[in-house]
Amino acid sequence: MSLLFRLMPQSNAILDCSPIAAAGHIIPQSFVPISVSQFMDDLSTEEMTACNHVENNY
Known about the structure:
The chain has helices spanning about 5, 20, 35-55; strands at about 15, 35. It is mainly α and about 60 residues long. It has one domain. It has a two-stranded antiparallel sheet with strand order 1-2. The longest helix is centred in the C-terminal third of the chain and has 21 residues, at about 35-55. The protein is extended, with a radius of gyration of 16 Å.
């Protein structure tokens, strides 16, 4: 099993800032926890938009 696979959270996991807040960092009020699957979907949508924008400029 690769290290990346071990570090990758499960798709049903929730990303939140609890560890960051526990370390004393300030978390903006606008932040809301998000599922890993939603984060990955949003990320791939942004990547597709960026790729289409670059292709349209040529």
